[in-house]
Amino acid sequence: MKKIIIVIGILSIILTALSCTRELPLPVRDLNIEFSLPDNFRSDIKYANQEVVFTSSSAVYKFTTDSNGELAITEIIPDEYSISTSWKMTGAQYKTMITDGELVEDKATVVLKASLGKKRVFTDEDFDVVLDKLVLKSLLISKVYYTGTKDDANKNYTVDSYVEIFNNSEDTVFIDGKYLALAESMSTPAYPAKDNPDYIYARQICKFPGDGNDNPIAPGKSIVIAAKNARDHRSSASTSIDLSTADFEVKEAEGMGNPDVKALNILSNSLTIKFLNLMTGGGNAVFIFETEEDILDWPQYYAPGKTSGERFRRVPITVVLDGVECLKNNASTGPDINLKRFQSLVDAGFAYTNATTGYTHESIERKVSTTENGRVILRDVNNSTEDFVITLDPTPRKYDKPELLN
């Protein structure tokens, strides 16, 4: 019996030794990865000296791309990895690297990033990583509500329209001295984008008050501008919204309308209308801009061939911070791209509502791109067709609507 026990013990030691000397998987060697920049980058710009992180269930590896923007991995344990990388730059730096003259603020944040989940790395098969671009402009138009609704007596209700402006950056931004404007909206366009590459012709321009630090917008927060009346409209129309807490109300002077809401004055007006004249059926080409010049020195023009009627102030597109083209929808043909007032550099696409005449409480709202540390970041690829969706919940400052998250 003792001999048997001794033999079993020896066998156990031998088996343990064999298991301890079992060979580990051979590493993957000489793996090469290339990084593709967005199409509008100059050919001489490379994804150089950027960190790339490989993360598996058991290890984290950090590598750095070379001067040619490529990553050469000498060896890595075969596994399934998530791969992430990003390159953050200012808008000023970004504009020196691109070819198309995209309108981006110098103080905007531009991020090139890629994230690959569950990438199987078991051979030395090279692969390519395509980088996405995210432009975090400091200010974006995030909601335009112009369709109106029906009141509780089923009559057309049109005084609840508003525009919302969102701070998509990491820093507090002051709206002081900036401008909110509407492009001309004649049924036959007076100044369509296709014929006017350098200017937008505005029918109304409002200037935000303040001396530079009076009206802050915190990161991930927004301001609401009541176009006509800053009150709780639900008391008259249950499908409407509460604008009593709006930040600004378009009106002539403080104390008018809702006395608790700051006045946003119309500085340049093609007509004598005293409110922001958003059309219930569209189109509404809404934009914000910034300039140190006196805009009242900018020229005004009648529609071509006319010598009376509305005059539109000419705004250079180089001062535009953001623009959203909301085209009128036609019941039989849909929106007509020939009606665009915004050049592609301002808005490469367009938004529109399902309704052709309004009164459906539809709102045009910007999608949510991501959330970082609790801060919402909105989508912005400079194309309203991709950036915006239609919602039947026009509630201001609300960004957790399911349709915005898809």
Provide structural commentary:
The structure is a single chain. The chain has 406 residues and is mainly beta. The protein is 8% helix and 37% strand. It has helices at 2-20, 91-95, 384-387, 402-405, and strands at residues 28-36, 51-55, 60-64, 70-76, 79-90, 109-121, 127-130, 132-136, 139-145, 149-150, 156-157, 162-167, 173-174, 179-183, 199-207, 216-217, 222-226, 248-250, 262-269, 284-289, 300-302, 311-316, 320-326, 363-366, 368-372, 375-378, 388-391. The strands form six sheets. Strands 9, 12, 14, 15, 17, 18, 19, 20, 21, 22, 23, 24 and 27 form a 13-stranded mixed sheet that branches. Strand 2 and strand 3 (60-64) form a beta hairpin. The relative contact order is 0.13.
Task: Describe this structure in a few short sentences.
The chain contains four helices and 27 strands. The chain has helices spanning about 1-20, 90-95, 385, 400-405; strands at about 30-35, 50-55, 60-65, 70-75, 80-90, 110-120, 125-130, 130-135, 140-145, 150, 155, 160-165, 175, 180-185, 200-205, 215, 220-225, 250, 260-270, 285-290, 300, 310-315, 320-325, 365, 370, 375-380, 390. The strands form six sheets. Strands 9, 12, 14, 15, 17, 18, 19, 20, 21, 22, 23, 24 and 27 form a 13-stranded mixed β-sheet that branches. The chain has a five-stranded antiparallel β-sheet with strand order 3-2-5-6-8. A three-stranded mixed β-sheet has the order 4-1-7, with no helix packed on it.
